[in-house]
């Protein structure tokens, strides 16, 4: 609820009548955006943000990502270095295989979001991740682009607890 009424009774009534949040004028656009993102995160419980509870590692197509050591091993069992952003993004993909995730979802769930990040910056992060995972990044096999919708991790993923 966005209003000019700032009395406690008005705020309480607005929340009790069903508002998820209550923001009074004047307000900061940055605060409004942060509150909207928080509400959206709570509305999408099927894909978790950050490291999943109890999961130690993921396996896919001969690769293994260990969440405790932050180590990605390729099919030849050689370590592939990942930046923090790449690691966070890969966790999101591995936690939701075969699901189309929008740029905004990927930014929010991989914690790449800041006030200076634009939603197209996820494309650069995905390009970098593809270069590390794919034998032919120009024709990806793992992270596929769903035109107009987002990206999908297209191979089966095994969760290791």
Q: Would you spell out the secondary-structure blueprint of this structure?
A:
Elements lengths: L1 E2 L4 H9 L6 E2 L4 H15 L13 E4 L2 E4 L4 E3 L5 E2 L3 H12 L7 H7 L11 H13 L9 E4 L3 E4 L4 E3 L1
Parallel strand pairs: 1-2
Antiparallel strand pairs: 3-4, 3-9, 4-5, 5-6, 7-8
CATH-defined architecture of the largest domain: Orthogonal Bundle
Largest sheet: 5 strands, antiparallel
Classification by helices and strands: alpha+beta
The number of domains: 2
Write out the strand line-up for the largest beta sheet, numbering strands in chain order: 6-5-4-3-9
Please report the total strand number as a whole number: 9
Radius of gyration, CA atoms, in whole angstroms: 19 Å
Mean pLDDT: 85
Write a short abstract of this structure:
This protein has 161 residues and is of the alpha+beta class.
Which key features would you list for this structure?
161 residues, alpha+beta, Arc Repressor Mutant, subunit A, 2 domains, two-stranded parallel sheet, 5 helices, 9 strands, elongated
